[in-house]
Amino acid sequence: MTINVALLGFGTVGQGVYETVQTHQHELSQKIGEEIRIVSILIKSQDKDRRIEENVQVTTSFADIFKQNRIDIVIEAIVGCDPTYNYVKEVLSQAIPVVTANKELMAKKGSHLRKVARENKTTIAFEASVAGGIPIIRVINECLQINRIEKVEAILNGTSNYILSSMRENGLSFKTALADAQKLGYAEADPANDILGWDAFYKTMILSDLIYGSQPDWEQAYRKGIDNVTEKEIKAAENEGKKVKLIATLSKAGGRVVHAEVKPVKIGPDHPLYSVEGVDNAVSIQTDLAENLVFQGPGAGALPTASSILQDVIKAALRNRSVDSKVAQVL
Amino acid sequence: MTINVALLGFGTVGQGVYETVQTHQHELSQKIGEEIRIVSILIKSQDKDRRIEENVQVTTSFADIFKQNRIDIVIEAIVGCDPTYNYVKEVLSQAIPVVTANKELMAKKGSHLRKVARENKTTIAFEASVAGGIPIIRVINECLQINRIEKVEAILNGTSNYILSSMRENGLSFKTALADAQKLGYAEADPANDILGWDAFYKTMILSDLIYGSQPDWEQAYRKGIDNVTEKEIKAAENEGKKVKLIATLSKAGGRVVHAEVKPVKIGPDHPLYSVEGVDNAVSIQTDLAENLVFQGPGAGALPTASSILQDVIKAALRNRSVDSKVAQVL
Predict the structure, then answer these.
(1) Among residues A202, A299, B175, B236, which one has the fewest Cβ atoms lying within 10 Å of its Cβ?
(2) Tell me, what's the pLDDT at A311?
(3) With bands split at pLDDT 50, 70 and 90, how would you rate the model's confidence at B325?
(4) Mean pLDDT taken over chain A
(5) Which residues on B lie below 8 Å from A28 (Cβ)?
(6) Strand pairing of A149-155 and B124-125?
(7) Matching InterPro entries, A to Z (chains A, B) (predicted)?
(8) Residues near B285 by beta carbon (within 8 Å), at least 6 away in sequence
(9) What is the DSSP secondary structure assignment for residue B251, as one 8-state letter?
(10) A291 at interface of B, judged by CB pairs closer than 8 A
C-alpha cells in the first residue's frame, strides 16, 4: 500500500513539497510505515515546462484528480480563498484530510472548514500557515495544553522584518529597502499583502482561533503595516537603543474579548523579539506555568514550509491508518 | 474513574507538580476526560511539616505506595540515580508509565529504561529533564520528524548562564557571582553539578540519545564548566563584542560518530544564542529543511518544570486509555 497524495498548486511551496517527498522518502516512510506518493498535481496552466516525473498526473482540472487514483491526502498549496475554499470544502466532504499552507483561507474560513472536517470525520491541518518552518501550531496545541496563554507577541511577516532590518542596518528609505527585497526575492512584485500587515494579520487571526477559540471582530482589530515607517523614525528609535519591528499582539487579559493588533512598534533590548533580524519569524508566548517561551526560525521559504506541511501529512497518514483500524476515537 | 498518580519526591519540583494539579485540574481533566488525583507521595523523612491534603497517602516507603491504591502513573521527582533507578525500573516492570524530570537518570540509564518500558508495553517520558519548560523533547520527537538534524547548540544550564551574565553585566568575579546566585536561589548550596558542566552534559547526552539514537563515549566527550572563567576573559570577550556562554554542542557531521561537548565559548551577536541571558535556557537546532530553529525559555523552576511533567502525564493518561481500548498499536 502507498499513501496517495494530491498536490494543489505547483508554485514555490508546491515544488518544495514535491522535491522533499523525493529527497526525504526514507524519513517519511519510516515514520508512516508506508510510502508517500504524489500521484496528482493541479496546475494553473499547461504552458510551463515542469520537472515532474512521467507517472504523475498533471492536470488543470480539479475534478480529474479524483477520477484517476484513490486519493488519501490532499495538500493545498495555492494562495487566497478563490477557488481554494471550494476545493478544500469539496475534499473534506469526501472525508479526505487536507493539509494547507494557506493563511488567508484559514484566517477567513478556518473555523468553518474545521467544522466541515469534523462533520466528515476527517481533519484539516495548517502548521505551514503560521510562521513557516516553526512548529508553532503543534507547540500550542500539543505541548502547552495545561498552560493558560496570557499573551502572544510575534514577528509573523519575514518580508516586513527584512525591510525594517535593512532600513536600520543600511540607512535606507522604505522604498529603496523594498526594491532591494524584491530584487533578492524576499518581497513579491506586488508586496501589498506583506507591507500593509495583512499577512501578519491573517496569521494572528489563526493563532487567535487556536488559542482563544475565536477571533476578534476584524473591524476592531488594529492593523497597520510598515509602508509609512520612515528612516527618521528608525533613526530616532536607534538613538534610544531601540528597533522598529512589525509586532503582532494577541491577548485576552482582563476580559472575555480577544484583543489583537498588528503594527510597527519600537522595542528595546529587553523585549524577547529584539534580536530577531532579517526574514526570520518569532513567536513569544507568555504563559502562567512555562513562563515566557520564544520560538524563532524561518518564516517562509520552500523547504521550511515543506517541513511543516509534510509533518502534517505524517500525522494525517497515521490518523487515516488508525481510522481504518476503527480506533479514530482515541486520536 | 480518576487517574491515580503517585509522586516520588516532594522537593521544589514535586511541590510544583502537586500545586499545579490542584490549580489546573480543569485544564487537565478537560484534556484527559478524567480527573487526575495525586493519591500517594513518597517523601524522605516525616520530620517536615507539609501542606498536603489529608486524603493523600504520605509515606517514606516506596513499597507501600502500591498497596493502598491502584496507581495509573508515577511521577519521579527525586534527583540522582540512587534509589531512583531501582524505583523506576520496578514501576515500569509493573507496566505503569513513568514521567520523570531526572536528567542524570535519563543520561546514564535512559536507553535501558526505555527498553524496560517497551518490554512491559508501557512508556517513560522525560520532557522535564531537558530545558525545563521548553517542550524540546516533543518538538524533536514529533515536530521535526522529516528533518535531518545537523547540529544542536544549546544553553542548558540556567545557573551557569546566570552567573556568566552577572559577571559580565556587573563586573563580578566568578566567586562573587556564584555567591550572589546562591543567595537568590539560582544556584544550590553545592553548585558542583551546575558549574562543572555536569548538568548541561547530562542533558546533552539525553538529546544525543533522542536525535542520533546513541551517545558518544563519555570519555571522548569534552566537558568543561565555568568554574575557571575569569573576569579578565569576560572583559576581553566584551572588547571584541562577544559574550562568554556555556555552550553544549552536538553534531554528527561527516561521520557516524556523534560529537558532543560542553564548554565556555565566546560567541558574537550573529550567534543564535547571543541574546540568551540570565537563567533562561535555549536550544538552537540546525536542520536540513526547517533551517535553523531556536527555542528559548525558563530552564528550571517549579512551575515550568511542572508544565512539562504534566504535559507528559496527559500523554501517558491518553495512552493508558487507548491501551485499555486495545488500540495501543496506533500510538
Answers:
(1) B175
(2) 98
(3) low
(4) 94
(5) 146
(6) unpaired
(7) Asp/hSer_DH_NAD-bd, HDH_cat, HDH_CS, HDH_short, NAD(P)-bd_dom_sf
(8) B140, B144, B149, B151, B152, B292, B293, B294, B295
(9) E
(10) yes
Which DSSP string do the residues of A193-221 spell out, in sequence order? HHHTTHHHHHHHHHHHHHHHSS---TTTS
Q: Which of B5, B19, B23, B330 has the most A C-beta neighbours within 10 Å, making it the best mutation to test the interface with A?
A: B330
Q: Among A36-45, A264-273, B317-326, which stretch is predicted with the lowest mean pLDDT? A: B317-326
Is B253 strand, coil or helix?
coil
In this model, does residue A331 exceed pLDDT 70?
A: no
Query: Half-sphere exposure of residue A98, counting CA atoms within 13 Å on the CB side?
Result: 31
The reply to whether residue A314 touches residue B147, judged by beta carbons under 8 angstroms, is no
In whole angstroms, what separates CA B129 from the centre of its chain? 2
Residues 6+ apart with CB under 8 A from B217: none
State residue B162's pLDDT score: 97
For the annotated catalytic residues of A, the residue numbers are: 203
**pLDDT at A324 (0 to 100):** 63
User: Beta partners for A6?
Assistant: A40, A74
Per-residue pLDDT averaged across A246-258, rounded? 87
Q: What is the pLDDT of residue B324?
A: 63
A298 CB within 8 Å of a chain B CB: yes
Domains of chain A, each with CATH number or no CATH? 2-132+303-328 (3.40.50.720), 136-298 (3.30.360.10)
Closest CA to A231 of A279, A181, A170, A184: A170
Q: Is there a contact between A293 and B290 if contact means CB atoms under 8 Å apart?
A: no
Q: Tell me the whole-structure pTM to 2 decimals.
A: 0.95
Question: What residues in A contact B298, CB-CB < 8 Å?
Answer: 290-292
Tell me, yes or no, if A275 comes closer than 8 A to chain B by beta carbon: yes
Q: In what order do the strands lie in the sheet with B35-42?
A: B57-59, B35-42, B2-8, B73-76, B98-100, B124-125
> Cβ distance A188 to A181 under 8 Å?
no
Separation of alpha carbons A17 and A41, rounded Å: 11
Nearest in space to B6 (alpha carbons), one of B80, B53, B68: B68
Q: How many other C-beta atoms lie within 10 A of the C-beta of residue B224?
A: 16
Triad B189, B190, B196: Cα angle to 5°: 135
Check pLDDT > 50 for residue B298. Answer: yes
ipTM reported for the complex, 2 dp: 0.95
**Residue B225 CB contacts under 8 Å (≥ 6 apart), including other chains:** B160, B194, B195, B196, B197, B198, B246, B262, B264
Instruction: State residue A327's pLDDT score.
Output: 44
Q: For residues A273 and A280, what is the distance between their CA atoms, to the nearest angstrom?
A: 11
Strands A280-287 and B222-223: unpaired
The residue assigned the cell 513567536 is: A283
- Could you list the active site residues of B? 203
H or E, element range at B177: helix B174-183
Test A289 with B297 for CB contact under 8 angstroms: no
Copy the grid coordinates of residue A308.
511543516
| Residue ranges with strand state E in chain A | 2-8, 35-42, 57-59, 73-76, 98-100, 124-125, 149-155, 222-223, 243-251, 259-267, 280-287, 292-298
What share of chain A has pLDDT > 90, as a percent?
A: 92
DSSP per-residue letters across B276-330:
--TTEEEEEEEESSS-EEEEEEES--HHHHHHHHHHHHHHHHHHHHHHHTT-GGG
- Give phi and psi for A270, each to the nearest 5: -80, -10
Tell me what the mean pLDDT of segment B45-71 comes to. Answer: 92
Is residue A98 helix, strand or coil? strand
Which three cell numbers, joined as nine digits, stand for B253? Answer: 557531521
| Residue corresponding to grid cell 512508556 | B123
Instruction: Report whether A308 contacts A133 (CB < 8 A).
Output: yes
Which residue, chain included where needed, has cell 477557488? A83
Across the interface, do B311 and A275 touch by the CB < 8 Å criterion?
A: no
